[in-house]
Structure prediction request, 51 residues.
Amino acid sequence: MNLANSAATFTQAAFERKSAKTDPGQFDLALKDLETAIEIVQAEEGDHVAP
Prediction:
């Protein structure tokens, strides 16, 4: 899952209509996916930094 997809999933879980029934764990999972994607991007950026 890429960062854009993770952000979209997080946004949907956080801000979708309150009348919709969602599993509270969906928000936590989306947040975890977003955190993981950010860590991957940061690690990749660290690989490209000149010493």
